[in-house]
Amino acid sequence: MEVELAALATSGATTVVALMATEGWNAVRSRVAALLQRGSRAQEDPNRVEGELELERREVADRDGDDAAVIADLEAVWRIRLRQLLREDPSASAALRELIAENSPARGAVHNTISGGGFQQGVIQTGSIHGDVHLG
Predict the structure, then answer these.
(1) Which domain of life is it from (predicted)?
(2) What is the DSSP letter of 22?
(3) Which of 75, 103, 129, 132 is paired with 22 by a 20 to 30 Å CA distance?
(4) How many domains does the chain have?
C-alpha cells in the first residue's frame, strides 16, 4: 500500500506543480486548497492555505528561465505533503486521483525534444494532413 501512496503522491506533486505554471491553475486552486485542508490541516484557515498556494505559484511562474532545480524542489515538497495527507486521510486518494486524471495530458500525447545540430529543412510532425503543405 505504501508503494501505491508514494506513486500517487509523486503523480499528484508533478501535476500540481505543472498546473501552477499554467492558466489552468486558477481553475483548480480552490480544489487543491480543499484537498490540503484534510487530515491534520482540517482546522486551518482557508485563506492561509490559499495564500501558501499563491506564494508557491509565484515561485513557479517567476522562475528564471527553465530552472529545473526550483521545480524539482517544489515537487519534492509536494510529494512529502501529499504522502502525509494520504496517510492521514486515505479517502483523499479519490479526490487526488480525480484531479490528476482531469489535468494530465491526453493519453497518447507526444513530447519531442530535439537538441544539438541545426536544421536546414522544415520539420513537420502531425497525425494527418489534409490538403497541400508548402514550405518556403
Answers:
(1) Bacteria
(2) S
(3) 129
(4) 1
Q: Which three cell numbers stand for residue 30?
A: 480552490
Q: What is the pLDDT along the chain (136 residues), one digit of tens a residue?
A: 688 889 999 999 999 999 998 888 988 999 999 998 887 777 778 888 888 899 989 888 877 656 788 888 889 999 999 999 999 999 999 999 999 999 876 555 555 566 666 666 666 666 556 666 666 5
Please check whether residue 118 lies inside any domain of the structure: no
Cβ proximity of 97 and 29 under 8 Å: no
Residue 135 lies in a domain: no
Cβ(116)–Cβ(38) under 8 Å?
A: no
Query: How many angstroms separate the CA atoms of 84 and 134, rounded?
Result: 55
Residue 89 lies in a domain: yes
**90: domain range?**
2-103
Least Cα distance to 19 among 118, 103, 96 occurs for 103
